[in-house]
Amino acid sequence: MRQLVELQVKSTSIKDLTNGYPLILKDAIETTEVTIAEGSLVHLVDSKGGYIATGYYGEQNKGIGWILTRKEKEKIDVKFFVKKIREAAEKRADFFASEDTTAFRVFNGEGDGIGGLTIDFFNGFYMVSWYSEGIYSFRNDVYAALKEVVNARGVYEKLRFNTNGQYVEQDDYVSGEKGEFPLIVMENGMHFAVDLNDGAMTGIFLDQRNVRKALRDTYADGKTVLNTFSYTGAFSVAAALGGSTGTTSVDLAKRSLSKTIEQFAVNGIDYESQDIKVMNVFDYFSYAARNNLKFDVVVLDPPSFARTKKMTFSTAKDYPKLLKDALAITADNGVIIASTNNASFNMKKFKTFIDKAFTDTNTRYKILEQHQLPEDFAVPHNFPEFNYLKVVIIQVIN
Ligand code: SAH
Predict the structure, then answer these.
(1) Which of 53, 54, 134, 395 is the most buried (most CB within 10 A)?
(2) With the CA atoms of 169, 171, 175 and 177 taken in that order, what torsion angle do they form, in degrees rounded to the nearest 10?
């Protein structure tokens, strides 16, 4: 039997929780002297024992669990998960019906009512990501529910709850047909090769869909494009398909070379006509500056934190510096696509980093577009802090 624990909420946190705040923060809880097993159900109550909400206990870097329902009598069983997944799938009806996009998010954690759980669709296959042992304890019910709602070719999963939320290495196959990887998915007519059973990442970050489209449709034609922190080169593919006269992809991971070649190849692009550099972006900036290289469009999409032997980089601290480095090798009146997925600051703060870089270098600029999470990455109403993605497309004015 699953443990049921009653936890008293601090009076200062009640309002947010009744307004739909989905996360159970350690700081919001008055009760201290209990040990709670992962996956326990928790009843949040006020100081008089009045019911507020039901959640599950699951430690993540963000908090100690998530709210599941605000109805005291509601059972957390297969039926509950069916309802949640069905509602989420219905909201994505347009994606399921799309002929030129076959990869998208079906279920986005707290935005769809169950924090710590995401489900992505890849051309008939489903990939379920579990962010705590707590939510993983509902595995059987969730898979039974998924089976009831959708017709999956096959199911894969990612366990993302090792220390610090790291990926747990395992065979990620769960059920159904085994995928033949790379599996080719489509996104707005572009092709991407993905592998659902090759470590933490799949080869494509689905949350950048609208940005790739913007790059292809609006900014790439006739331009040279530098793609930094390029991973498998998805932005480079978008640029090349949009008519770029040459892309340069820079990533220090060795495997990025073969993965980027693969992404070009599945789109019929001659990869030999594109530049792929396996190196540290910061070394590349120096190299490009020394050789007077300039790019019409520069894409910046760094990880929130990165550590190499020589240095550490944190977007929260170092983004202005990164932008200045990029500016130094951006052609006159070029465009910079600045992106970050660091959840610790919001769009407003991100724009102050941008402003600082341009002010410090006495350069004028104009914001052309901004993007946050796309529609399928649903975010809880009233709580924009869960919308972690921030992308600003900047026109440099020289
Ligand atoms: N822009 C990519 C995703 C970037 S993921 C996309 O849209 O698909 C972050 C990437 O940054 C990883 O591939 C990692 O290898 C790379 N990386 C981290 N630190 C780096 C550094 N200092 N120089 C170059 N690449 C780096």
Answers:
(1) 134
(2) 130
